[in-house]
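Appendix C: a fully annotated inverse folding record. The material below is reproduced so that readers can follow the format used throughout the book. The structure is listed first as C-alpha cells, followed by the designed sequence.
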C-alpha cells in the first residue's frame, strides 16, 4: 500500500469515527430532550422552583358575651433584595445605605449602625436578593420600617420583602386556656382549637418560590399566586366574667389547701352550655398551671356525690321513702366494715341519712334491697346513661366505668354496697355534674356543649342546639323528693353554715372520697378527693356547678375544702345576674300620673312613649308639641311656628330649641341645663335674623 492510500484510509477512519460520535451525541440529545424530557424538566423545576403553602389566617374564638378568647395576628419576616429596581445604580444605594443602617440600629437596637451598614454593603457585593433583616416583626413595626430610607421608595423599588406569618395569641392569657386548646399535627388535638381545627384553620394558599444561592428560597412574584382562605370563627359558650370568677376561686382554694390538682365546671341548667371550666395542677410549691383537663378526662371514684343516683334508684323502685328509718354508724359486709367517718347519728330517716352523708346507711339500704337481684340496681345506672360518654364537642373525654354483675371483677358480696356510696366505678367531674343538672332540669338529661355556633364572614354556617340524652330520667315524684333532699344538705346537713346563703337557695351534695394510689390501692398512702356538686337557685335552677379538689393537705372534708369555692362562685354569679332575683310584684295605683315629656318634635315624643308602653295619642297638626298634662293620659298643645316671629321654645330640651332657633336665623345663647324655662326676646316678637337670643334651662 502506497503512502497516499495509507493516508486516505486513516483520514476516512478518523472522519467516520467523528461522524459516528456526532450521530451518538445527536441521538443522546434527542433521547434526553424528547424521550426523557418530561422527567428532566420536572427535576429541574423541583430543584430551582416549587410551590409552597401559604398559611391562612386562623379564625377567632369568641366567648358567649362577644369577648375575644383567641385570635391570630400577623408577624413578618423582613428580607431585602439588594438588586431591586430603585437601587440598581450604585450611587443611589451608597448615598442612602448609611441612613438606612442608622434607622435600623436605632429602631431594632440589636446591632450598631456600623454593623448594619457593613452587613448591607457586603450583601450588595454578593448581589444578595433575599437578605434576612429581622424576624418576628409586628404589623405596627412594619408600618414604621416602610418609612425608612430606601424602603420608602416603594414595594418594588426599595427591595423590602415582608413574608407574613400568623401568630396565635390569647388576649385573656390563662383564662380558659385549656378549653381553648391548641392544634398540633404531632400531638393529640386539645380543646376547641383541636376539635374545630378544620373550620378555624381555613384553606392554605399557594406561592411560587425559587431557590437562589445558599439554598435560600425566595418568592418569584411579589403577590401570592393562590390567596389563602381565612378560617371560620367559633362562638363558644364560655362567659369570660364567669370564667374569671371560677378560676380565681379554684386557684385560691388549691393554694389554701395545698392540693395536688382541682377542677371546676359551671353549666347552664336548661341548655347544657358550659359557662366556665377550669383545671389546675400544682407544678411547684404554691404554683398551679393548666396542664390536664381533669374535668372531662379525670376519671375517679366520685364518692358521696354518687349517693344521689343510689337514693334515686331506691325511691324510683319505691323500696324506701324519705321518712323510712335506717341505722347509721357501721355496716359489716364480708371482708370489709363500712364506716361513717363522723360516727353514728343513730337510727334516722332516709332524708336525714342523706343530709349527713352516711355511708353505712346507703350501703345497707342498697345491699338489702338489691342483694338478690343486683343487676336491677346497675340497670338503673345504665338507663341513665352513666356508663356512656357524653359525646362532647372537644376531644379527650374519658370513658365512664360502671360495673355490672356480668363483669369479671364483680364481687357479689362487696361491689354492690361499695358502689352505693361512690366506689368501684370511674366517673369524670363533668359526668357527675351532668347528672345533677338533669335533676335541676326537671329530669331532662342534656349533653354539655362548648360551642354555640360557627361563623364565616359574619354569617352562621353551623349552629349547635341543646342535645337531649334522656327526656326524663325518673318520675316527678322521685325528682321532687331528691330536690328536697339536696336542699336539705345545704340547709340542715353537711353543707350547713358553709354553702348556705340566706339570699337564695342552693341544693347539692358533698363528696369526700379516698383515692387509690395507682396499683398500690387505698392503704399505701391516704389521699382524698373533696367535691361539692349542686345547682342554684334551688327553687328556680339556672346554673349547676361542681368543684373537685384532689389531694388536699390542709383538711380533706368536702364541706371545708370544696364548699368555699362553690359558695364564692355561686355568690358572685347570683350578685351579677338580676334574672335570678325574686321578681318584685308590680302594683298600680289609680290615677297614676304618666311620665312628662319635654316639648319637641312630635314624632320623637310619640316614639319615646311607645317604647315605654304608653299609648299617647298626640292630636296635633303641628310638627312640634308641648305636653301640658299627664295626670290622665297625655294632653298636648301645638307649638306653632309663625314665619317672621320669634318661635316659642319654652319646655323644650336644648337640642330641639337650638334646632328651631337656628333654623329661624337666630343665634342661641345658652345658660343652664334641662328644659327651657325662659327666653329673651319673648315668643311672638318680631324676628331679626342674626340677632342673639338668650335661653335659660332648668
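Designed amino acids, in order:
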Amino acid at each position: 500500500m502506497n503512502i497516499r492510500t495509507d493516508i486516505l484510509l486513516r483520514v476516512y477512519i478518523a472522519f467516520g469515527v467523528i461522524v459516528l460520535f456526532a450521530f451518538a451525541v445527536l441521538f443522546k440529545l434527542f433521547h434526553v430532550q424528547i424521550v426523557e424530557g418530561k422527567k428532566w424538566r420536572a427535576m429541574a423545576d423541583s430543584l430551582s422552583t416549587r410551590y409552597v403553602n401559604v398559611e391562612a389566617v386562623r379564625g377567632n374564638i369568641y366567648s358567649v358575651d362577644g369577648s375575644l378568647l383567641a385570635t391570630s395576628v400577623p408577624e413578618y419576616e423582613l428580607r431585602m433584595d439588594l438588586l431591586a429596581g430603585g437601587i440598581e445604580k450604585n450611587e443611589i444605594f451608597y448615598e442612602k445605605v448609611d441612613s438606612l443602617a442608622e434607622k435600623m440600629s436605632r429602631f431594632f437596637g440589636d446591632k450598631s449602625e456600623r454593623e448594619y451598614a457593613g452587613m448591607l454593603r457586603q450583601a450588595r457585593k454578593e448581589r444578595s436578593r433575599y437578605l434576612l433583616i429581622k424576624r418576628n416583626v409586628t404589623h405596627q413595626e412594619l408600618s414604621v420600617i416602610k418609612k425608612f430610607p430606601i424602603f420608602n421608595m416603594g414595594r418594588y423599588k426599595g427591595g423590602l420583602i415582608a413574608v407574613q406569618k400568623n401568630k396565635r395569641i390569647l388576649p385573656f392569657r390563662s383564662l380558659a386556656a385549656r378549653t381553648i386548646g391548641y392544634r398540633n399535627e404531632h400531638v393529640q388535638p386539645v380543646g376547641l382549637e383541636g376539635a374545630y381545627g378544620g373550620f378555624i384553620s381555613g384553606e392554605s394558599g399557594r406561592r411560587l418560590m425559587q431557590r437562589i444561592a445558599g439554598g435560600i428560597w425566595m418568592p418569584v412574584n411579589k403577590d401570592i399566586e393562590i390567596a389563602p382562605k381565612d378560617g371560620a370563627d367559633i362562638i363558644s359558650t364560655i362567659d369570660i366574667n364567669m370564667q374569671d370568677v371560677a378560676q380565681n376561686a379554684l386557684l385560691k382554694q388549691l393554694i389554701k389547701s395545698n392540693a395536688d390538682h382541682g377542677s371546676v365546671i359551671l353549666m347552664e341548667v336548661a341548655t347544657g352550655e358550659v359557662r366556665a371550666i377550669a383545671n389546675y395542677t400544682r407544678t411547684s410549691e404554691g404554683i398551679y398551671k393548666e396542664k390536664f383537663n381533669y374535668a372531662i378526662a379525670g376519671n375517679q371514684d366520685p364518692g358521696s356525690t354518687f349517693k344521689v343516683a343510689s337514693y334515686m334508684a331506691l325511691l324510683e323502685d319505691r323500696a324506701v321513702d324519705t321518712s323510712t328509718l335506717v341505722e347509721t354508724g357501721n355496716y359489716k359486709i364480708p371482708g370489709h366494715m363500712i364506716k361513717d367517718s363522723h360516727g353514728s347519728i343513730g337510727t334516722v330517716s332516709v332524708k336525714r341519712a342523706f343530709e349527713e352523708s352516711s355511708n353505712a346507711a346507703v350501703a345497707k339500704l342498697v345491699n338489702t334491697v338489691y342483694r338478690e337481684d343486683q343487676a336491677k340496681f346497675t340497670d338503673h345506672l345504665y338507663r341513665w346513661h352513666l356508663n356512656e360518654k357524653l359525646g362532647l364537642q372537644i376531644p379527650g373525654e374519658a370513658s365512664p366505668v360502671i360495673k355490672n354483675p356480668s363483669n369479671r371483677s364483680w364481687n357479689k358480696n362487696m361491689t354492690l354496697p361499695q358502689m352505693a356510696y361512690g366506689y368501684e366505678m370511674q366517673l369524670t367531674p363533668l359526668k357527675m355534674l351532668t347528672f345533677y343538672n338533669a335533676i335541676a332540669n326537671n329530669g331532662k338529661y342534656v349533653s354539655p356543649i362548648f360551642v354555640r355556633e360557627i361563623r364565616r364572614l359574619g354569617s352562621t354556617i353551623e349552629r349547635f342546639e341543646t342535645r337531649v340524652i334522656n327526656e326524663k330520667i325518673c318520675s316527678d315524684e322521685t325528682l321532687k323528693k331528691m330536690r328536697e333532699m339536696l336542699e336539705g344538705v345545704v340547709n340542715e346537713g353537711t353543707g350547713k353554715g358553709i354553702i348556705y346563703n340566706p339570699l337564695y337557695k342552693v341544693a347539692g351534695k358533698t363528696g369526700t372520697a379516698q383515692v387509690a394510689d395507682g396499683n398500690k390501692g387505698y392503704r399505701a398512702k391516704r389521699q382524698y378527693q373533696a367535691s361539692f356538686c349542686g345547682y342554684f337557685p334551688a327553687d328556680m335552677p339556672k346554673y349547676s356547678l361542681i368543684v373537685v379538689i384532689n389531694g388536699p393537705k390542709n383538711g380533706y372534708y368536702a364541706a371545708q375544702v370544696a364548699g368555699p369555692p362553690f359558695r364564692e362562685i355561686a355568690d358572685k354569679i347570683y350578685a351579677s345576674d338580676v334574672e335570678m332575683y325574686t321578681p318584685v310584684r308590680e302594683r298600680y295605683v289609680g290615677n297614676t300620673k304618666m311620665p312628662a315629656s319635654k316639648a319637641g318634635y312630635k314624632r320623637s315624643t310619640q316614639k319615646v312613649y311607645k317604647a315605654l308602653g304608653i299609648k299617647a295619642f298626640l292630636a296635633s297638626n303641628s310638627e312640634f308639641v308641648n305636653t301640658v298634662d299627664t295626670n290622665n293620659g297625655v294632653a298636648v298643645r301645638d307649638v306653632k311656628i309663625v314665619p317672621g316671629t320669634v318661635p316659642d321654645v319654652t319646655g323644650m330640651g336644648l337640642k330641639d330649641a337650638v334646632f328651631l332657633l337656628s333654623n329661624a336665623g337666630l343665634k342661641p345663647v345658652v345658660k343652664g341645663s334641662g328644659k327651657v324655662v325662659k327666653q329673651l326676646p319673648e315668643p311672638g316678637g318680631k324676628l331679626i335674623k342674626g340677632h342673639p337670643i338668650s335661653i335659660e334651662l332648668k
